[in-house]
Amino acid sequence: MRPDGRSMRESILAAAVQLFAQYGYHAAPLRDIARIAGIQAASIYHHYPNKQALLVEIMETYMLRLNTSLEHILKEYDDPLQRLHEAIANHIRMHTTYKEEFFIIDTEMRALEEEHRPHILSLRDKYEALLQELLRDGMERGIFRQSDVKIASYAMIAMCTEVATWFRPDGRLSVQQVITIYRQFIAEGLLVLMPDVSRMPDESAHLL
């Protein structure tokens, strides 16, 4: 184990995350990853066969975490609105907690070699499908308004992902406060609107 409690493999991966996020995959040499991890460049090959393997592990690890957590929400909760609230909170928390890792996922898909691209894309597609399942169920049960499920899921993902670009832990709002605001925005856009009887004209007035 390393002095900070990490294994050598974890130290290498953490260094790769730092440099991929800061400079981009192609501009991050293995020798610099090794330097930050505190090892000789050649020692990396005892743990990873090449730089591409580091990128694939980062993407696979955090997409699986995202998918697994959403699967758990769908199993744990039955109420569509509760599922929606939990999914929003989960997405924002994951993207603000692992900001660099998800930034890499969002920006470095083009750096994947052809042999790895289908697998990583399938993990992304699975997340979208799970979210669309959540939304479709709410629509079928009359809780959410009827709308294009794919577009609704893409809009929700884009909104929640964007939080990581501007959120600061020492800023004016906590993560939980941001989650509460986003829950309100998204839920109000999806919920079936019931007529407000207090604002409806009194039909009896026309009989007078």
Describe the protein's architecture and organization:
- It contains eight helices and no strands.
- It is mostly helical and 208 residues long.
- Helix 1 (8-23) crosses helix 5 (99-107), helix 3 packs parallel to helix 6 and helix 4 packs antiparallel against helix 6 (117-140).
- Mean pLDDT is 90; it is low at 195-208.
Descriptive key words:
208 residues, Tetracycline Repressor, domain 2, Arc Repressor Mutant, subunit A, DNA-binding transcription factor activity, mainly alpha, transcription regulation, 2 domains
In short:
By secondary structure, the protein is mainly α. The chain is 65% helix and 0% strand.
Known CATH architecture of the largest domain:
Orthogonal Bundle
How would you sum up the global shape?
elongated
Largest sheet: none
What's the gyration radius in Å? 22 Å
Mean pLDDT: 90
User: Residue ranges: pLDDT <50 for 5 or more in a row?
Assistant: 195-208
**Which fold name is given in CATH as the topology of the largest domain?**
Tetracycline Repressor, domain 2
CATH homologous superfamily identity of the largest domain:
Tetracycline Repressor, domain 2
Beta content comes to under 5%
How many domain units? 2
Distance between the termini: 86 Å
The count of helical stretches stands at: 8
CATH class of the largest domain: Mainly Alpha
Strand tally is 0
SSE order, one letter for each helix or strand = HHHHHHHH
Query: Helix amount, in percent?
Result: 55-70%
Structural class designation: mainly alpha
Topology:
Layout: H1 8-23, H2 30-37, H3 51-76, H4 80-97, H5 99-107, H6 117-140, H7 149-166, H8 175-190
